[in-house]
Amino acid sequence: LFEPLAAGWADLEASLLGPLVHVPRHPLALARFGLSALQSAAGFARRRFRGEPAQALFAGLASHSILPLESLGSASFGLVLGTTGHAVGWPLPRGGSQRIADALASYLRSLGGEIRTGAPVESLDELSAPTILCDVTPRQLLRLAGERLPERYRRSLERFRYGPGVFKLDWALSGPIPWTAPECGRAGTVHLGGTLEEIAASERSPARGETSERPFVLLAQPTLFDASRAPEGRHTAWAYCHVPNGSSADLTDAVERQVERFAPGFRERVLARSVFAPADLERRNRNLVGGDIAGGSNELRQLVARPVLRPVPYATPLEGVYLCSASTPPGGGVHGMCGYLAARAALRAGGGRGRRRHRRRSA
Prior knowledge:
The chain is α+β, with helices and mostly antiparallel strands. It is 41% helix and 11% strand. It is built from 14 helices and seven strands. The protein has helices at 2-7, 9-16, 27-37, 41-48, 52-62, 74-87, 98-110, 138-145, 151-158, 196-207, 252-262, 278-284, 300-304, 337-362, and strands spanning 132-134, 165-173, 189-192, 217-220, 235-243, 270-276, 321-323. Strands 3-4-5-2-6 form a five-stranded antiparallel β-sheet, with helices on both faces. Strands 1-7 form a two-stranded parallel sheet. It is globular. The relative contact order is 0.14. The model is unreliable at 352-363 (pLDDT under 50).
């Protein structure tokens, strides 16, 4: 399944990590991918694989869609994540994800950029810059722009749907997680869910406004590969599961029971834990509406029209104002493509012309 996709990743990458509505550079490769990607993950896994392990493996990959696995298009997430795992890996940033932000900030400052924090913007009227890139979801853009937005665009943003939230735990551990399966002790990311049927049942629950007694758990154990993140001999891990948007349920016990199920003795190694329910996550970051870490539901309609159906989805009807959050294509993930593509759109619309004139004068 993944060998031809990984081998052809260079042809697919630009098409998959950008707006779905576009003229593809490699239409045949994209069409072949699309025939599988538009299917439901559960149906695709059952048709493609006979054995339980492979079906469950694909279900875990596809559950990053944060959709019921019976949803059309959910197979695309399993295919993309599996392909990138083979083509480029799933790397961990040494020193923690803060290092990514630090590196970007350092580079911006080296170019003469200025970063101002602790200065909340309540309205776009407060800003005088000719180009404004908003790393916000539709709900915040509506608050910032208000009546300045045309009515039709405003109504489209109001219809934008948010997806399930997440319940997250961080652990300080006295040692590595004691997995029954030794392979799990060599993995940066582990999907805990059992069979395809169990994972699918868990992922249906949030869409119904329910929490699962056996939640599908996405777990990372970075200190297996990056000793700088914990004192010598100690370890850290984090995990989350999907819950209804805005859920106030405490799933600490359910998540830890699921880890203990595959790693007996895990709880004995927990020195301390931090708990983040959806409301806690949203307080730390307004973009995480109801704990939705994907910037909006990944249902098929919103994969195509994200956040609305426009030739350039990053551009708003307001001159010089662009959206660059995970509510734009290609959606959530540590890829930076939403900001990159929004910046490219802004340059094409104005900044790029200024740079070209400057180059011609210099020549």
